[in-house]
Every structure is written in C-alpha cells, then in structure tokens.
Amino acid sequence: MAPAGLLYLVSTPIGNPEDITHRALRILTESDVIVCEERKEGERLLARYAIRGKAVELLNEHNEAAASWHILEHLRGGRNVAVVSDAGTPVFSDPGRILVQRAIEAGIIIIPVPGASSLLPALTVSGFPLDSFVFCGFLSPKSNRRRTELHALRQEKRTMILMDTPYRLAALLKDVAEVLGGERRVCVAFNLTMSDETIYRGSAAELSAVASKKNLKGEFVLVVEGRPR
C-alpha cells in the first residue's frame, strides 16, 4: 500500500503579492492538489505565480464537512495536498479545521508553511503592550449581540485583537467607543501591505468619527488597548 500524502497548510499574501515565501511557492508547485476557498481566487493565485496544471478542490464554509472526506481520499491515495485560504493563513478564522481534525485521526502528516499574517504586524505597530494579548476574532454581525460581546470584554486588561468584514469597520468602531468607552485607545491597521496601507491610532471615539466621515471600507485589524491596570 502506497504511503499517504502530506497535508500542507500554506500561508499566502494578505495583499502584496511580493510577500509569498520561496518555500510556499515550492510547495504549491510540487503538490498534487491545491485546496482553496473559492475557485476564482485559487486560480488567480496560481496564475499570479505561473503555477499550472494543478487539480483544484474547493473547501469553504458551505461544503467543509463533505469536502473534507473527499480531500482525505486524495491524501490516503498518496497525493500531496496544499491548502490555501483567500489570503493569509488557512484554517485560522477560515474553513479547514474539520479537515485538519480528520487528517490527525487518519494519521496524516500535517505541515504548516508560515508566511504573511495581518495579526502580528497590526500588533507591532499599535504601540500597545504585547507581553500578553487576546485574539477575540470576529464578533457577531448583529449590533445588539456584538455589543453584548464587547460588554464581556470591558474588564479585559490584555491587548485585544478584533477582526471583521471590510464593510463593518465603522459599525464596529462605533460599538467599541460606546461600550468600552470613547477614550479607550485603539489602532486600526488598514489594508496592510497594500499601496494604500494606513495605520490609524487614537481614541475609539476619534477613530469612529474618522471611519464614519471617510466611509472606510477595506481589510483591517482592530487592536484595542486593554483596560488600564
């Protein structure tokens, strides 16, 4: 019986295509199957780096359970599989956890291929304490529930990281200002690595006003200073 294939979790650029690593390019070139969230985005990624002739499978929030079994068959058949997300690190705040769990149960070797990330750059430019921080991820898209989730973070003393969809930045900042306090210091790392990359720093109230006035919409990471000790 042929040995099982390897499962690679390959990080890709979050915006600037120059941020791809040599190792990521090699793994994508050598893998038998490329797994992506959306076919259009996956094929665009491969075309950008002139990687051709690859079998492409889809794994996203709509088909994750069924697709994971199908991809596992590729691995059991001895084919190497590389998983990518639309941008950044796969599985992290993206589909893929079910596949990883099933691969572990099947004894498949899983190899993470690190690369570009939005979290650490946003943290390092925030100026907030980094000895301890907490990733809060995506809060609820519904304002009432989101405000309840923020209320639960009011006493958090560690630096907090929040993310959301590009069009919800203004709404999220408004709720942060109203629930955590308008004076709470925040940093918005906006469109990191892109030509219009901008780092906004100030109070929650100030940046809420800026986001509303400029109608800011784009990829972002919101870093919130913890409650003063």
Largest sheet, in brief, is: 5 strands, parallel
- Arithmetic mean of pLDDT: 95
- Characterize the overall form: elongated
Helix- and strand-based class?
A: alpha/beta
Question: Can you tell me the residue ranges where pLDDT is under 50 for at least 5 consecutive residues?
Answer: none
Helix fraction, binned, reads 25-40%
Helix and strand element order: EHEHEHEHEHEHEHEEHE
Q: What's the arrangement of strands in the largest beta sheet?
A: 3-2-4-1-5
- Compute the gyration radius: what is it? 20 Å
Percent of sequence in beta strands: 15-25%
Number of strands: 10
Q: Could you outline the blueprint of secondary structure elements for this entry?
A:
Blueprint: E1 7-10, H1 22-30, E2 33-36, H2 39-48, E3 55-58, H3 64-76, E4 81-83, H4 97-105, E5 110-113, H5 119-126, E6 133-138, H6 143-151, E7 159-163, H7 169-180, E8 185-190, E9 198-203, H8 204-214, E10 220-224
Parallel strand pairs: 1-4, 1-5, 2-3, 2-4, 6-7
Antiparallel strand pairs: 7-10, 8-9, 8-10
Helix pairs in contact: 3-4, 6-7, 7-8
